[in-house]
Amino acid sequence: MIRFYFHPTPNPAKVALFLEETGLPYEIVPVDTAKGEQHLPAFRAINPNGKVPAIVDTEGPGGGEARVFDSTAILLYLAEKTGRFGGDPKDRPELLSWLLFLASGLGPFSGQAVHFQHAAPEGLGYAVNRYRREAERHYQVLDDLLATRPYVTGADYTIADMSAWGWIGRASRVLKGEDDPLARFPHIKRWFAEIDARPAAARAREVGKDHTFKASGDEASRRALFPSNYPPAAE
Q1: How far apart are CA 193 and CA 113, in angstroms?
Q2: pLDDT digits (tens, 9 = 90+) for 71-120
Q3: DSSP assignment letter at 179
Q4: What is the pLDDT of residue 129?
Q5: Strand order in the sheet with 2-6
Q6: Which class is 2-84+203-229 in CATH?
Q7: SS3 sequence, 110-127?
Q8: CA 26 to the chain's CA centroid
Q9: Pick the CATH number of 89-197 from 3.90.226.10, 3.30.420.40, 3.20.20.140, 1.20.1050.10
Q10: Which site from 10, 141, 148, 186 is most exposed, i.e. has the minimal number of CB atoms within 10 Å?
Q11: Do the beta carbons of residue 114 and residue 173 sit within 8 Å?
């Protein structure tokens, strides 16, 4: 059994897609990040970095429990555990390269673009421009790649596609103000439509819908989500 620590945001969505594609048994453990539950000692024991997603595999290597945090690490772990969606062995260098491009580039810059366009105070035009343009640049790299192949690593649908799907699904927030945010990236648009039409993707989008998560936007949620923005309380 997989215990899946979840909040309805792009990185957990990737893991939800893998779990739904494979049919691995799992249970959802909601982590309400707007309430600060990611900072509780019980969760920090699973992910010391205080971020979702994380999993605990009750049937890990050697028969014991295994904890895994960071969405890319989880996807790699589950692909190896199940022998599925890891792609052709000859494409392993491509898989690792694009997974890390997504983990260190497209995902973080998209996240920062969302933050500065939607959550940060007004008047930070340099930051808005910086992260928006870098997100667009990463989209263009991915679009150029998908002009040459059906999926991220080549002929096979893999965890690299699942990883990208999680963030591309938020294109309307990353590319704020565009009626059709993928219009400039036709190869991403074709690829995303194909993956998003998979039955597992529809099921993944429903994960966690039976739990009411707190809406962000008030002062308490900002402190929970961005604690490093606030100085520690004086003793």
Answers
A1: 23
A2: 999 999 999 999 999 999 999 999 999 999 999 999 999 999 999 999 99
A3: S
A4: 96
A5: 26-30, 2-6, 54-57, 66-69
A6: alpha beta
A7: HHHHHHHHHHCCCCCHHH
A8: 18
A9: 1.20.1050.10
A10: 148
A11: yes
